[in-house]
TrEMBL record:
GO terms for cellular component: cytoplasm
Domain Mur ligase C-terminal per the UniProt entry, residue ranges: 325-451
Record protein name field: UDP-N-acetylmuramate--L-alanine ligase
Molecular function in Gene Ontology: ATP binding; UDP-N-acetylmuramate-L-alanine ligase activity
Domain Mur ligase central: 118-302
Gene: murC
Top-level lineage group: Bacteria
UniProt record similarity statement: Belongs to the MurCDEF family.
Record keywords: ATP-binding, Cell cycle, Cell division, Cell shape, Cell wall biogenesis/degradation, Cytoplasm, Ligase, Nucleotide-binding, Peptidoglycan synthesis
Compartments, record wording: Cytoplasm
Length: 465
Protein backbone atom coordinates (compact mmCIF):
# COMPACT_ATOMS: atom_id res chain seq x y z
CA UNK A 1 0.00 0.00 0.00
CA UNK A 2 1.06 3.61 -0.53
CA UNK A 3 2.35 5.93 2.13
CA UNK A 4 -0.32 7.59 4.23
CA UNK A 5 -1.18 11.10 3.11
CA UNK A 6 0.01 12.57 6.40
CA UNK A 7 3.42 10.92 5.94
CA UNK A 8 3.88 12.38 2.46
CA UNK A 9 2.59 15.75 3.58
CA UNK A 10 5.06 15.77 6.47
CA UNK A 11 7.86 15.06 4.02
CA UNK A 12 6.95 17.44 1.19
CA UNK A 13 4.58 20.01 2.67
CA UNK A 14 2.98 22.34 0.13
CA UNK A 15 4.17 21.48 -3.39
CA UNK A 16 4.59 23.82 -6.38
CA UNK A 17 5.18 22.20 -9.79
CA UNK A 18 6.86 24.05 -12.67
CA UNK A 19 6.01 22.91 -16.20
CA UNK A 20 2.82 21.44 -14.77
CA UNK A 21 1.14 21.24 -18.17
CA UNK A 22 3.60 18.60 -19.37
CA UNK A 23 2.43 15.02 -19.32
CA UNK A 24 5.12 13.93 -16.84
CA UNK A 25 4.72 16.76 -14.33
CA UNK A 26 0.92 16.73 -14.58
CA UNK A 27 1.04 13.04 -13.61
CA UNK A 28 2.98 13.93 -10.45
CA UNK A 29 0.48 16.71 -9.71
CA UNK A 30 -2.47 14.32 -10.05
CA UNK A 31 -0.89 11.77 -7.74
CA UNK A 32 -0.11 14.41 -5.12
CA UNK A 33 -3.69 15.68 -5.34
CA UNK A 34 -4.88 12.08 -4.86
CA UNK A 35 -2.79 12.03 -1.67
CA UNK A 36 -4.57 15.20 -0.52
CA UNK A 37 -1.54 17.48 -0.67
CA UNK A 38 -1.83 21.23 -1.27
CA UNK A 39 -0.67 21.64 -4.87
CA UNK A 40 0.08 24.65 -7.04
CA UNK A 41 1.75 24.90 -10.42
CA UNK A 42 2.75 27.03 -13.39
CA UNK A 43 3.08 26.51 -17.11
CA UNK A 44 3.95 28.86 -19.96
CA UNK A 45 0.73 28.06 -21.85
CA UNK A 46 -2.89 27.61 -20.77
CA UNK A 47 -3.24 23.98 -21.80
CA UNK A 48 -6.41 21.82 -21.46
CA UNK A 49 -4.74 19.68 -18.78
CA UNK A 50 -4.59 22.72 -16.49
CA UNK A 51 -8.39 22.93 -16.36
CA UNK A 52 -8.58 19.42 -14.93
CA UNK A 53 -5.95 20.22 -12.30
CA UNK A 54 -7.82 23.37 -11.28
CA UNK A 55 -11.03 21.37 -10.94
CA UNK A 56 -9.16 19.01 -8.62
CA UNK A 57 -8.24 21.94 -6.34
CA UNK A 58 -4.77 22.87 -7.57
CA UNK A 59 -3.82 26.56 -7.72
CA UNK A 60 -2.64 26.94 -11.32
CA UNK A 61 -0.91 29.90 -13.00
CA UNK A 62 -0.10 30.64 -16.63
CA UNK A 63 3.18 32.50 -17.07
CA UNK A 64 6.14 32.24 -14.71
CA UNK A 65 6.41 34.72 -11.86
CA UNK A 66 8.25 34.48 -8.54
CA UNK A 67 5.03 35.32 -6.68
CA UNK A 68 3.42 32.10 -7.96
CA UNK A 69 5.47 30.07 -5.47
CA UNK A 70 3.31 31.37 -2.63
CA UNK A 71 4.21 29.56 0.59
CA UNK A 72 5.43 26.36 -1.10
CA UNK A 73 7.80 24.08 0.82
CA UNK A 74 8.83 21.86 -2.10
CA UNK A 75 9.26 22.63 -5.80
CA UNK A 76 9.01 19.98 -8.53
CA UNK A 77 10.50 20.90 -11.91
CA UNK A 78 10.43 19.44 -15.40
CA UNK A 79 13.65 18.90 -17.32
CA UNK A 80 13.17 22.11 -19.30
CA UNK A 81 13.19 24.36 -16.21
CA UNK A 82 16.59 26.04 -15.87
CA UNK A 83 18.27 28.91 -13.99
CA UNK A 84 16.91 32.17 -15.32
CA UNK A 85 13.30 31.06 -14.85
CA UNK A 86 11.98 33.54 -12.23
CA UNK A 87 10.23 30.85 -10.18
CA UNK A 88 13.28 28.58 -10.19
CA UNK A 89 15.56 31.44 -9.20
CA UNK A 90 13.18 32.43 -6.39
CA UNK A 91 13.05 28.84 -5.10
CA UNK A 92 16.87 28.78 -5.01
CA UNK A 93 16.96 32.15 -3.25
CA UNK A 94 14.56 30.91 -0.57
CA UNK A 95 16.43 27.64 -0.15
CA UNK A 96 13.35 25.55 -0.97
CA UNK A 97 13.63 21.85 -1.60
CA UNK A 98 13.82 21.38 -5.39
CA UNK A 99 13.00 17.96 -6.90
CA UNK A 100 13.24 16.81 -10.49
CA UNK A 101 9.96 15.43 -11.85
CA UNK A 102 11.27 11.89 -11.42
CA UNK A 103 12.10 12.54 -7.76
CA UNK A 104 8.61 13.89 -7.19
CA UNK A 105 7.16 10.76 -8.80
CA UNK A 106 9.43 8.55 -6.69
CA UNK A 107 8.03 10.19 -3.56
CA UNK A 108 4.51 9.10 -4.54
CA UNK A 109 5.71 5.51 -5.12
CA UNK A 110 6.96 4.99 -1.59
CA UNK A 111 5.18 2.39 0.49
CA UNK A 112 3.89 0.36 -2.45
CA UNK A 113 4.79 -3.33 -2.19
CA UNK A 114 5.60 -3.75 -5.89
CA UNK A 115 6.98 -0.97 -8.08
CA UNK A 116 7.02 -1.87 -11.78
CA UNK A 117 9.22 0.46 -13.86
CA UNK A 118 9.02 0.23 -17.64
CA UNK A 119 11.90 1.59 -19.69
CA UNK A 120 13.23 1.45 -23.22
CA UNK A 121 14.17 3.65 -26.13
CA UNK A 122 10.76 2.89 -27.69
CA UNK A 123 7.51 1.34 -26.59
CA UNK A 124 7.61 2.19 -22.91
CA UNK A 125 4.45 4.35 -22.93
CA UNK A 126 2.31 1.67 -24.59
CA UNK A 127 3.80 -1.11 -22.45
CA UNK A 128 3.17 0.90 -19.27
CA UNK A 129 -0.38 1.57 -20.44
CA UNK A 130 -1.02 -2.09 -21.24
CA UNK A 131 0.33 -3.18 -17.85
CA UNK A 132 -1.71 -0.63 -15.88
CA UNK A 133 -4.83 -1.36 -17.96
CA UNK A 134 -4.45 -5.11 -17.38
CA UNK A 135 -4.08 -4.73 -13.61
CA UNK A 136 -6.89 -2.18 -13.31
CA UNK A 137 -9.30 -4.16 -15.51
CA UNK A 138 -8.79 -7.27 -13.41
CA UNK A 139 -9.48 -5.25 -10.26
CA UNK A 140 -6.10 -5.03 -8.49
CA UNK A 141 -6.50 -1.22 -8.17
CA UNK A 142 -2.93 -0.26 -9.15
CA UNK A 143 -1.37 3.17 -8.92
CA UNK A 144 0.18 4.29 -12.19
CA UNK A 145 1.92 7.10 -14.03
CA UNK A 146 2.14 7.04 -17.82
CA UNK A 147 3.68 9.41 -20.36
CA UNK A 148 0.40 9.86 -22.25
CA UNK A 149 -3.30 10.10 -21.61
CA UNK A 150 -4.87 6.65 -21.78
CA UNK A 151 -8.55 6.51 -22.81
CA UNK A 152 -9.20 3.17 -21.11
CA UNK A 153 -7.71 4.48 -17.86
CA UNK A 154 -9.31 7.91 -18.09
CA UNK A 155 -6.09 9.71 -17.11
CA UNK A 156 -2.30 9.55 -17.21
CA UNK A 157 -1.87 8.98 -13.45
CA UNK A 158 -3.87 7.72 -10.51
CA UNK A 159 -3.28 6.67 -6.92
CA UNK A 160 -4.94 3.29 -6.44
CA UNK A 161 -5.53 1.40 -3.22
CA UNK A 162 -3.68 -1.73 -4.37
CA UNK A 163 -0.10 -2.83 -3.78
CA UNK A 164 1.23 -2.24 -7.33
CA UNK A 165 2.64 1.00 -8.76
CA UNK A 166 3.27 0.92 -12.52
CA UNK A 167 5.42 3.74 -13.89
CA UNK A 168 6.95 4.74 -17.19
CA UNK A 169 10.67 5.23 -16.56
CA UNK A 170 12.23 7.91 -18.75
CA UNK A 171 15.82 7.29 -19.80
CA UNK A 172 16.25 10.52 -21.78
CA UNK A 173 18.14 12.31 -19.02
CA UNK A 174 18.98 9.27 -16.85
CA UNK A 175 16.29 10.28 -14.38
CA UNK A 176 15.02 6.68 -14.28
CA UNK A 177 17.94 6.04 -11.91
CA UNK A 178 15.93 7.89 -9.23
CA UNK A 179 13.44 5.03 -8.91
CA UNK A 180 13.62 1.92 -6.70
CA UNK A 181 11.82 -0.73 -8.75
CA UNK A 182 11.00 -4.31 -7.81
CA UNK A 183 10.19 -5.25 -11.42
CA UNK A 184 11.77 -3.74 -14.54
CA UNK A 185 10.69 -4.13 -18.16
CA UNK A 186 13.18 -3.07 -20.84
CA UNK A 187 11.56 -2.99 -24.27
CA UNK A 188 14.76 -2.10 -26.17
CA UNK A 189 18.06 -0.23 -25.80
CA UNK A 190 19.32 1.88 -28.69
CA UNK A 191 21.43 4.97 -29.12
CA UNK A 192 19.25 8.02 -28.53
CA UNK A 193 19.34 11.21 -26.47
CA UNK A 194 23.00 11.58 -27.34
CA UNK A 195 22.68 15.28 -26.48
CA UNK A 196 22.63 14.03 -22.89
CA UNK A 197 24.69 10.83 -22.98
CA UNK A 198 27.28 11.67 -25.59
CA UNK A 199 27.88 8.09 -26.75
CA UNK A 200 25.89 4.93 -27.44
CA UNK A 201 28.00 3.10 -24.84
CA UNK A 202 26.86 5.56 -22.19
CA UNK A 203 23.22 4.85 -23.09
CA UNK A 204 23.72 1.11 -22.68
CA UNK A 205 25.58 1.60 -19.39
CA UNK A 206 22.69 3.65 -18.03
CA UNK A 207 20.35 0.69 -18.56
CA UNK A 208 22.84 -1.59 -16.77
CA UNK A 209 22.88 0.87 -13.87
CA UNK A 210 19.09 0.90 -13.91
CA UNK A 211 18.86 -2.90 -13.76
CA UNK A 212 21.34 -2.93 -10.89
CA UNK A 213 18.73 -1.07 -8.80
CA UNK A 214 16.67 -4.26 -8.51
CA UNK A 215 16.60 -5.78 -5.02
CA UNK A 216 17.20 -9.42 -4.22
CA UNK A 217 14.60 -11.57 -6.02
CA UNK A 218 13.71 -8.60 -8.23
CA UNK A 219 12.53 -9.36 -11.76
CA UNK A 220 14.09 -8.05 -14.98
CA UNK A 221 11.99 -8.58 -18.14
CA UNK A 222 13.79 -7.89 -21.44
CA UNK A 223 12.84 -8.13 -25.10
CA UNK A 224 14.83 -10.98 -26.67
CA UNK A 225 14.30 -9.56 -30.18
CA UNK A 226 16.20 -6.36 -29.46
CA UNK A 227 19.98 -6.66 -29.40
CA UNK A 228 20.45 -4.06 -26.68
CA UNK A 229 17.76 -5.45 -24.36
CA UNK A 230 18.87 -9.03 -24.97
CA UNK A 231 22.49 -8.10 -24.14
CA UNK A 232 21.25 -6.44 -20.95
CA UNK A 233 19.50 -9.68 -19.94
CA UNK A 234 22.69 -11.64 -20.65
CA UNK A 235 24.85 -9.23 -18.63
CA UNK A 236 22.51 -9.22 -15.65
CA UNK A 237 22.26 -13.01 -15.59
CA UNK A 238 26.03 -13.07 -15.28
CA UNK A 239 26.28 -10.21 -12.79
CA UNK A 240 23.31 -10.85 -10.45
CA UNK A 241 22.49 -14.42 -9.48
CA UNK A 242 20.12 -13.02 -6.84
CA UNK A 243 17.60 -11.60 -9.33
CA UNK A 244 15.29 -13.25 -11.84
CA UNK A 245 15.72 -12.49 -15.55
CA UNK A 246 13.08 -13.30 -18.17
CA UNK A 247 12.95 -12.57 -21.89
CA UNK A 248 10.09 -12.33 -24.35
CA UNK A 249 9.83 -12.08 -28.12
CA UNK A 250 9.65 -13.94 -31.40
CA UNK A 251 13.23 -15.22 -31.00
CA UNK A 252 13.61 -18.96 -30.43
CA UNK A 253 15.59 -18.37 -27.22
CA UNK A 254 12.92 -16.15 -25.61
CA UNK A 255 11.49 -17.43 -22.32
CA UNK A 256 8.03 -16.26 -23.37
CA UNK A 257 7.96 -16.91 -27.10
CA UNK A 258 5.61 -15.37 -29.65
CA UNK A 259 4.80 -16.97 -33.00
CA UNK A 260 2.23 -16.98 -35.80
CA UNK A 261 1.55 -13.24 -35.67
CA UNK A 262 -1.23 -12.17 -38.01
CA UNK A 263 -3.85 -9.53 -38.65
CA UNK A 264 -7.39 -10.92 -38.55
CA UNK A 265 -10.23 -10.03 -40.89
CA UNK A 266 -11.96 -8.00 -38.18
CA UNK A 267 -8.91 -5.75 -37.76
CA UNK A 268 -7.40 -7.35 -34.67
CA UNK A 269 -3.84 -8.64 -34.23
CA UNK A 270 -3.04 -12.03 -32.79
CA UNK A 271 -0.11 -14.30 -31.98
CA UNK A 272 0.50 -17.50 -30.07
CA UNK A 273 2.47 -17.06 -26.85
CA UNK A 274 4.09 -19.99 -25.06
CA UNK A 275 6.51 -20.45 -22.17
CA UNK A 276 8.67 -23.04 -20.49
CA UNK A 277 5.89 -24.87 -18.70
CA UNK A 278 4.63 -26.03 -22.09
CA UNK A 279 1.60 -23.76 -21.81
CA UNK A 280 0.50 -21.67 -24.78
CA UNK A 281 -2.31 -19.20 -25.33
CA UNK A 282 -3.56 -16.79 -27.99
CA UNK A 283 -2.64 -13.15 -27.48
CA UNK A 284 -5.35 -11.05 -29.15
CA UNK A 285 -5.08 -7.24 -29.41
CA UNK A 286 -7.12 -4.36 -30.76
CA UNK A 287 -4.01 -2.21 -31.35
CA UNK A 288 -2.01 -2.86 -34.53
CA UNK A 289 1.52 -4.02 -35.15
CA UNK A 290 4.00 -6.70 -34.20
CA UNK A 291 5.63 -4.24 -31.80
CA UNK A 292 2.41 -4.08 -29.77
CA UNK A 293 2.28 -7.87 -29.54
CA UNK A 294 5.73 -7.62 -27.99
CA UNK A 295 4.58 -4.87 -25.61
CA UNK A 296 1.62 -6.99 -24.52
CA UNK A 297 3.86 -10.02 -23.96
CA UNK A 298 5.93 -7.92 -21.54
CA UNK A 299 2.80 -6.80 -19.71
CA UNK A 300 1.60 -10.39 -19.50
CA UNK A 301 4.90 -11.37 -17.86
CA UNK A 302 4.12 -8.87 -15.09
CA UNK A 303 0.64 -10.31 -14.73
CA UNK A 304 1.93 -13.87 -14.46
CA UNK A 305 4.50 -12.79 -11.87
CA UNK A 306 1.70 -11.07 -9.93
CA UNK A 307 -0.19 -14.37 -9.79
CA UNK A 308 -3.00 -13.36 -12.13
CA UNK A 309 -4.98 -16.06 -13.88
CA UNK A 310 -3.44 -16.13 -17.36
CA UNK A 311 -6.64 -16.08 -19.42
CA UNK A 312 -8.06 -13.29 -17.29
CA UNK A 313 -4.90 -11.26 -17.95
CA UNK A 314 -5.11 -11.99 -21.69
CA UNK A 315 -8.77 -10.95 -21.79
CA UNK A 316 -7.87 -7.67 -20.07
CA UNK A 317 -5.07 -6.98 -22.56
CA UNK A 318 -7.42 -7.69 -25.47
CA UNK A 319 -9.68 -4.82 -24.36
CA UNK A 320 -6.90 -2.20 -24.46
CA UNK A 321 -7.80 0.52 -26.95
CA UNK A 322 -4.46 2.34 -27.17
CA UNK A 323 -2.63 5.36 -25.81
CA UNK A 324 -2.83 8.94 -26.99
CA UNK A 325 -0.51 9.60 -29.95
CA UNK A 326 0.40 5.90 -30.31
CA UNK A 327 -1.15 4.98 -33.67
CA UNK A 328 -4.13 7.01 -32.51
CA UNK A 329 -7.11 7.02 -34.86
CA UNK A 330 -8.11 10.64 -35.49
CA UNK A 331 -11.02 10.06 -37.84
CA UNK A 332 -12.15 9.19 -41.35
CA UNK A 333 -13.34 11.37 -44.20
CA UNK A 334 -13.88 10.49 -47.84
CA UNK A 335 -13.02 6.85 -47.02
CA UNK A 336 -9.51 7.98 -45.97
CA UNK A 337 -8.43 7.16 -42.42
CA UNK A 338 -6.13 9.49 -40.48
CA UNK A 339 -3.81 8.34 -37.67
CA UNK A 340 -1.33 10.17 -35.44
CA UNK A 341 1.81 8.72 -33.89
CA UNK A 342 4.48 10.08 -31.53
CA UNK A 343 7.31 8.18 -33.24
CA UNK A 344 10.49 10.29 -33.27
CA UNK A 345 13.31 7.72 -33.58
CA UNK A 346 13.94 5.70 -36.79
CA UNK A 347 13.02 2.40 -35.14
CA UNK A 348 9.74 3.90 -33.91
CA UNK A 349 8.98 5.37 -37.33
CA UNK A 350 9.59 2.01 -38.98
CA UNK A 351 7.29 0.26 -36.48
CA UNK A 352 4.56 2.88 -36.96
CA UNK A 353 4.72 2.67 -40.76
CA UNK A 354 4.81 -1.13 -40.70
CA UNK A 355 1.62 -1.08 -38.62
CA UNK A 356 0.18 1.51 -41.00
CA UNK A 357 0.93 -0.74 -43.96
CA UNK A 358 -0.92 -3.60 -42.26
CA UNK A 359 -3.95 -1.46 -41.49
CA UNK A 360 -4.00 0.07 -44.99
CA UNK A 361 -4.18 -3.36 -46.66
CA UNK A 362 -4.42 -2.66 -50.39
CA UNK A 363 -4.59 1.09 -49.81
CA UNK A 364 -1.66 3.50 -49.98
CA UNK A 365 0.12 5.18 -47.05
CA UNK A 366 0.82 8.92 -47.01
CA UNK A 367 2.89 10.48 -44.24
CA UNK A 368 3.51 13.93 -42.79
CA UNK A 369 6.70 13.63 -40.73
CA UNK A 370 8.23 16.21 -38.42
CA UNK A 371 11.82 15.58 -37.29
CA UNK A 372 12.37 16.23 -33.58
CA UNK A 373 15.63 17.87 -32.44
CA UNK A 374 18.55 18.98 -34.58
CA UNK A 375 20.91 16.60 -32.77
CA UNK A 376 18.69 13.58 -33.44
CA UNK A 377 18.31 14.55 -37.09
CA UNK A 378 22.07 14.94 -37.44
CA UNK A 379 22.64 11.50 -35.94
CA UNK A 380 19.91 9.56 -37.72
CA UNK A 381 18.87 11.33 -40.95
CA UNK A 382 19.83 8.34 -43.12
CA UNK A 383 17.89 5.91 -40.90
CA UNK A 384 14.85 8.22 -40.88
CA UNK A 385 14.90 8.31 -44.68
CA UNK A 386 15.10 4.51 -44.85
CA UNK A 387 12.16 4.08 -42.46
CA UNK A 388 10.02 6.69 -44.22
CA UNK A 389 10.60 4.92 -47.53
CA UNK A 390 7.97 2.40 -46.36
CA UNK A 391 5.34 5.03 -47.23
CA UNK A 392 3.99 5.84 -50.68
CA UNK A 393 4.51 9.58 -50.27
CA UNK A 394 6.08 11.74 -47.58
CA UNK A 395 5.83 15.41 -46.67
CA UNK A 396 8.60 16.43 -44.26
CA UNK A 397 8.11 19.47 -42.03
CA UNK A 398 10.90 21.64 -40.70
CA UNK A 399 12.71 20.31 -37.63
CA UNK A 400 10.91 20.83 -34.31
CA UNK A 401 13.70 22.28 -32.15
CA UNK A 402 12.19 21.73 -28.68
CA UNK A 403 15.02 22.60 -26.29
CA UNK A 404 17.79 22.95 -28.90
CA UNK A 405 19.45 25.67 -30.93
CA UNK A 406 19.93 25.03 -34.68
CA UNK A 407 22.99 23.13 -35.90
CA UNK A 408 24.58 24.50 -39.06
CA UNK A 409 23.85 22.34 -42.09
CA UNK A 410 21.23 20.20 -40.29
CA UNK A 411 17.76 20.52 -41.82
CA UNK A 412 14.83 18.45 -43.02
CA UNK A 413 16.22 18.26 -46.55
CA UNK A 414 18.86 15.82 -45.22
CA UNK A 415 16.01 13.35 -44.72
CA UNK A 416 13.70 14.23 -47.62
CA UNK A 417 16.44 14.00 -50.25
CA UNK A 418 17.22 10.41 -49.26
CA UNK A 419 13.69 9.01 -49.06
CA UNK A 420 13.13 6.44 -51.83
CA UNK A 421 9.52 7.43 -52.55
CA UNK A 422 8.18 10.87 -53.57
CA UNK A 423 9.09 13.25 -50.75
CA UNK A 424 9.55 16.98 -50.21
CA UNK A 425 9.98 19.50 -47.44
CA UNK A 426 6.79 21.54 -46.97
CA UNK A 427 5.29 24.05 -44.58
CA UNK A 428 2.40 22.66 -42.45
CA UNK A 429 -0.44 24.08 -44.57
CA UNK A 430 1.20 22.91 -47.79
CA UNK A 431 1.81 19.46 -46.28
CA UNK A 432 -1.89 19.15 -45.44
CA UNK A 433 -2.86 20.10 -48.99
CA UNK A 434 -0.25 17.71 -50.39
CA UNK A 435 -1.40 14.56 -48.58
CA UNK A 436 -5.08 15.38 -49.15
CA UNK A 437 -4.43 15.72 -52.88
CA UNK A 438 -2.55 12.39 -52.92
CA UNK A 439 -5.05 10.39 -50.87
CA UNK A 440 -7.73 8.25 -52.46
CA UNK A 441 -10.51 6.17 -50.87
CA UNK A 442 -9.02 3.27 -48.94
CA UNK A 443 -5.74 5.10 -48.25
CA UNK A 444 -4.27 6.04 -44.87
CA UNK A 445 -2.68 9.34 -43.84
CA UNK A 446 -0.36 9.40 -40.83
CA UNK A 447 1.06 12.40 -38.98
CA UNK A 448 4.26 11.34 -37.24
CA UNK A 449 6.62 13.07 -34.81
CA UNK A 450 7.02 14.33 -31.24
CA UNK A 451 6.38 18.00 -32.02
CA UNK A 452 3.30 19.97 -33.05
CA UNK A 453 2.66 17.88 -36.17
CA UNK A 454 -0.09 16.24 -34.10
CA UNK A 455 -2.17 19.40 -34.58
CA UNK A 456 -2.50 18.73 -38.31
CA UNK A 457 -4.85 15.73 -37.97
CA UNK A 458 -8.02 17.82 -37.64
CA UNK A 459 -6.89 20.06 -40.51
CA UNK A 460 -6.37 17.01 -42.74
CA UNK A 461 -9.82 15.63 -41.88
CA UNK A 462 -11.45 19.00 -42.55
CA UNK A 463 -9.70 19.24 -45.93
CA UNK A 464 -10.69 15.68 -46.82
CA UNK A 465 -14.31 16.54 -46.05
Amino acid sequence: MALRADELNADLGKVHLMGVGGVGVSAVARLMLDYGLQVSGTDAKDLPVLTGLRERGARIHVGYDAANLGDADTVVISSIIKPGNPEYDEAVRRGLRILHRSEGLEATMRGHEKIVAIAGTHGKTTTTSLTAHMLKTIGTRPSFAVGANIPSLGTNAELGSGSYFVAEADESDASFLNYRPDVIIVTNVEADHLDHYGTADAVHQAFVDFAQLLPEDGLLICCADDEGANNLARKMRAARSDIRVQTYGFSDHADRRLSQAQATEDGRFTATIEWGSGESRILDLAVPGQHNLLNAAAALAVGIDAGLEVQEALDALSSFSGAARRFEFKGEAGAVRVYDDYAHHPTEVQAALTAGRTVAGNGRLHVVFQPHLFSRTQEFYRQFAQALSLADSVAVLDIYPAREEPIEGVNSELIASRIEVPAQVLAPAAAVAHVVEKAEPGDIIMTIGAGDVTALGPDILKALS
